[in-house]
Structures are given as C-alpha cells and as structure tokens.
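Task: sequence design from structure.
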C-alpha cells in the first residue's frame, strides 16, 4: 500500500505541536508507514526543546480505529506463504511510544477510537472527547486479545467494570467515558479542537521542567511505596527549584504575572 505523506499531518503553533491522522475515508486507520511516521513525529516532539505540549487528533468522523485491516490481512497472507522471508507484522506500535514520551500529550478524540487507536488515546495524559466519540477495543471480534486496555481500564474503573468491557467488547460512548474518568471533558464536535488547544496552552504556560517531573511522578507513583514516592518527589522539587528560570517563575507567581 503506497504511503501518502498527507495521511499524517504535523504542525507547530508556538510551544504546541499537533499530529492529525488524516485518512478520513478509512476513519484514520493506521498503515505500517503511518505508524512509522507517527513515531518519528513523537520523537521529533520529544527532542524539540521549544515544544511543551502536543495534541493528537483525527480528521473527519474518526480518531483512529487501529491498524488498517486490509493491510494486516495482506501481510499475514504473505507471511503464511513465505514465512522464511516475510516475518509476521511487528508488535511495536505507537501507543507504546506515546506512553514513553515524558512531555504532555493531549488526545482530542473526535470520533471512534478502537483497538490501537483506543490504546493511543488511553496512553495520552489528558483526553478530551467530542460528543460523537466512541471507545472500543474490537480485538475479540478479530480473534485477538486486547492490548494496552488490560493495563489502563482496571486503573480507571476497577476490575469488575473493566472485565465487562474487555470480555464483551462493548463500546463506550463519550458520556460513559466521562463517568469512568477516561476523558476529562466532553464538548460539542465543533468545539473540540478549540478546547484541546486551550488545554494545551494552559499546560504549555507552566515551567516545562516542573511539568515533565509532574508527569513522570504521576505515571510511576502508584506502583511505589509511600516513602519511596516521597523521596522521588523531594528530589524532583529540589531539581526544579534550582533549574534555569525557576527564580523567574517563582517571582512571576508572586507578582501575579505569567
């Protein structure tokens, strides 16, 4: 399948980056090349010292339904015919890398988020959804096993409710996702991108080192004993306090300035 560079759009506005999956006729299903481009852009964001927040969204009616089913089937058929030269498609997927980025990521979920697309959204730090958003993993219907949902869903809603969604493959609409804490806001479709940008601007206005430490600690603190967690918090606070710009940031706070 020939890759179209316009399938993954990247833009920067001030300190904010945006990735838009732009294959609306396929609800933004990810091809292998799209996966690769997506991960390259995440790396670019991670390594750009001027960028402080990123929005991930989709064009049209879908956020992302996961991997392109037609390409998956084609690759699996080729692997079955020539296993010695056609290895099975890789399990290295973007949601693993989304989880690894230490800068803030905001998912603006504009429509269906399924399978890998669901995982990408869950791996982001903040999720805001349009009223048309839907979340489902779809793996069981394909004869497969869920992926990142195993890790995220029990943490958001408890094991009993998570097992309902995992074992039935039931879809969750935007209001259900809000009730369970999977998203922080639900807004009309026409306001989604504006809302995501406002959140990104609020994040980007904070001192960047403090933001990165806050994300790191929030992501890891649950698995640590209290004393160990407090040691890491104390260390992060000390580093942030002595970092370049810290004195100016604190003085601006006292002066009620940005």
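Answer:
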């Amino acid at each position: 399948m020939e890759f179209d560079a316009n399938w993954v759009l990247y833009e920067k506005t001030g300190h904010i980056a945006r990735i838009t999956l732009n294959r609306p006729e396929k609800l933004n299903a990810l091809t292998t090349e799209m996966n690769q481009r997506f991960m390259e852009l995440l790396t670019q964001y991670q390594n750009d010292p001027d960028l402080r927040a990123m929005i991930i969204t989709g064009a049209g009616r879908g956020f992302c339904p996961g991997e392109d089913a037609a390409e998956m089937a084609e690759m699996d058929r080729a692997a079955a015919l020539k296993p010695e030269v056609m290895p099975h498609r890789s399990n290295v997927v973007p949601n693993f890398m989304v989880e690894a980025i230490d800068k803030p990521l905001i998912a603006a979920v504009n429509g269906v988020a399924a399978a890998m697309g669901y995982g990408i959204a869950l791996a982001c730090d903040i999720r805001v959804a349009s009223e048309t958003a839907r979340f489902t993993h779809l793996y069981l219907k394909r004869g497969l096993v869920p992926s990142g949902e195993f890790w995220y869903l029990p943490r958001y809603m408890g094991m009993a409710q998570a097992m309902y969604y995992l074992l039935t493959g039931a879809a969750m609409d935007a209001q259900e996702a809000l009730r369970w804490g999977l998203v922080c806001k639900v807004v009309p479709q026409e306001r989604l991108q504006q809302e995501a940008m406002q959140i990104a601007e609020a994040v980007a206005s904070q001192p960047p080192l403090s933001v990165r430490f806050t994300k790191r600690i929030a992501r890891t603190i649950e698995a640590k004993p209290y004393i160990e967690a407090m040691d890491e918090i104390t260390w992060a606070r000390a580093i942030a306090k002595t970092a370049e710009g810290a004195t100016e940031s604190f003085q601006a706070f006292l002066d009620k300035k940005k």
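The radius of gyration is 20 Å.
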